[in-house]
Design goal:
CATH superfamily of chain A: P-loop containing nucleotide triphosphate hydrolases
Number of strands of chain A: 10
Largest sheet of chain B: 2 strands, antiparallel
Shape of chain B: globular
Helix content of chain B: over 70%
Order of helices and strands of chain B: HHHHHHHEHHHHEHHHHH
CATH architecture of chain A: 3-Layer(aba) Sandwich
Chains: A alpha/beta, B mainly alpha, C mainly alpha
Shape of chain A: globular
Largest interface: B-C, 49 and 52 residues
Number of helices of chain A: 10
Strand content of chain A: 25-35%
Helix content of chain A: 40-55%
Strand content of chain B: under 5%
Oligomer: heterotrimer
Radius of gyration of chain B: 20 Å
Number of helices of chain B: 16
Number of domains of chain A: 1
Amino acid sequence: MQLQSVEARYGPVKALHGISLDVAAGELVAVLGANGAGKTTTLRAVSGTVRRTGDVVFDGRKLPRRPDAAARAGIAHVPEGRGTFSELSVWENLRLGAYTRRGSIKDDAQRVFKYFPRLDERKGQQAGTLSGGEQQMLALGRAMMARPKLVLLDEPSLGLAPMLVKEIFERLERMRADEGVAVLVVEQNANLALAHAARAYVLEVGNVVVSGASEELRANESVRRSYLGY
Amino acid sequence: MRLKLALEVLGLLALAALIAVMPQLVSSFTAYEMATVGMYFIALLGLSILTGYSGQISLGHGAFMAIGGYTTAVLSVNGVYGHHIRDLWTIPIAGVVAGVAGLLVGIPALRLSGLYLALITFGIAVSFRQIPLKFDHFLGGTSGKVLSLLKTPFGLSATPNNWIYYLTWGIAFVLLVAAWLFVRGKPGRTLKAIRDSEIAAASSGISLARYKTLAFAMSAFYAGVAGSLYAIARGFMNPDVFPIVLSVYLVAALALGGVDSFLGLIVGASAIYVLVNRTADVTQWINHLPAVNLNPQRPGMPDVIFGAVLIVVLIILPTGVGGALRRLFGPLTSRLYSKS
Amino acid sequence: MYIAAFTWTEFAQQITAGVRQGAVFAGLALALVIIYRSTRAINFAQGEMATFTTFVCWSLMNHGLSFWAAFPIVLVIAFVGGVTIERTIIRPVENGPVITIVIVTLGLALLLNGLMSVIWGGGNRPFNGPFSTRTIDVGGVPISVQDIGIVAVSFVLVGLLALFFRFTKLGLGLRAAALNRDSSELVGVRVGWMLAFGWGLAAVLGAVAGMMVAPILFLDPNMMQTILLYAFAAAVLGGLDSPVGAVVGGLLLGVAITLLGRYVGFIGDTLKLPTALLLILLVLLVKPNGLFGRVAVRRV
């Protein structure tokens, strides 16, 4: 997947000033940056939930700017706040994950339950009654139901205890390795993101300022001072 | 600001002059028609205070007009302890009775948000006609109550039609000034604050309850006065004088005209007049179009046009005709309320 | 207030009549709820839409079709009509203030009402329903076949709808679109079409309600006006966003109104409507979200 000098705006306010980035198949890439740097907007530009100019090329084809088109092309976006349907049951949320697909979803559900056995136990429960960690699992599980080629993940650590965050990232890593999905993750916690991602982009006020392999970024003086805090 | 105030006062004076000379320029029947438009204008004025300034919606103002009409009918036909009251003096009483009814609706309305209020008031519009049917010995049932013929009192030389014209527009002018003062003063500013953000208004210590109820009562008072005048002009009162659909027309006319434009309210009032009183004529006008041949006995056409116009206007001009005019002509249009 | 002479047989008959009325209220209330859930507004044209489709049925029957032959055709027309209305006139104001949507539906009501007068003329006319009005004996209580038929049709329809919402992917998509637009788009639900689909379903429900009451009320352009008010009351009673509430509210209201009208002399036939109004007002004051509604928390 490639972004080619993508700009995005909310009404009169420009949030991205021409961003180019790419994610290879099966790769975990992180987007880092301060609040308001345009991290979330980058994900929204990919899934088409924000007004954008510039091309998003996915699988060699240009994506039309419609959220359902992105979903159909194989991009699963787990937004900030997880985007689960709190009034629907866990099982119904998973069914919605596979909304764009035809055919049986039993196998996919089994695979999701393998990673997140907790969801199997809570199948009939209303999603709103799950704990924060369980909801994040549900969001990931729902994304997996679509058999995506790319998962867009927005702040998976938000509001979760450090232990849980670690667990979530480990499962994410495992899922990526097993299923060969590419992941583009936005994360405030740069240490954590760089520990898991192969590469990362650092955004500042709507521009990419630094990018490269996680190792390189970790060694980069200014990145370390601004984002890693040591 | 001061210039604007002067312009507004000037506008009101010009309007007063226009009202005064109008009957000299038109026929007696046209004066009667314009009087009727004035009655709808009064009702719309009240509704504009409610909707435009406290953000409440009422689909039941036809019922308040009917309350005013029935008050006038009962007082002037049945009388009080055998004393018939001259119809002229029943007008303020009709306003007060309707206002009290509005107060009674306004209090529970405080607890209802927009949609529920719309539902309840629509319910009032639909079910009010059952009341005169139930208390038919007192309110006349379907056969209704016949008031005395419209005539000019106090030995004035005007024709009855001109008399009702002057009466209606005189009252309309007074009520317009009252609304203008109300809206410019503290109550208006408060109501606007409520409309724009109820929560913010509440947290800055404004008593929502008092002002919203006040707005409801005041708009019902206006409707009651309008209804009373209408009954006097028609000389007759039964449940069909104020049909259910009138309440819808009122809200629709307000949306069409735009809540805070004086010109818009006149346009809206005229539209209601045509819909209620000139339906057959509209069908005949349409028949002049090529390839159209409608039976004037089938009165649906005006509703079709009005409904379609309403939908189109709301889709392309969400602030109504008045709002669009204002944007076009800026400060040239005579404004009812200051926007700032 | 006097209590009319009481027999158990008559009481049972009144209950049946109440359930029959309630079934119609429930159908229309359900239509209102479906639209409310997707558009967050009340469709004031629901009654006119129902009457219009009933007129279409009447025309088809006039052209020699039997009721049951016309029935499915009318449902298809209603569905397409509902979808078209949403796409053309509701869509442009969908994100506007609720008052604007309400007024657009009022405009639609005026337009349809006038259109019916133009096409079919005013005044009421008999409508031959599918069920006979003769009575059969059910456990010692004579009940008309028509009442049983109306209740059965309404219940089957509501049941089918429940199955549809619960078990089909489309039904799930509809529910998701009504609950959370943004998240639905992200999983690939075409939210715009779902809203239109909701309007189509609502129109179908209204059409059935209209065709069921027409034989009892006679057909005229204003036929559904008071029924719409009862349906409002039923929907509010059950909580505006609860489909189950709408059905239960409709049945409760139907029975309550029938019994009050029959056994409380002061109310009689004339004051049924104001009584229903008073009832919803009381419910709203005590339980602002209805009997089954979710509590909406307003954050400051």
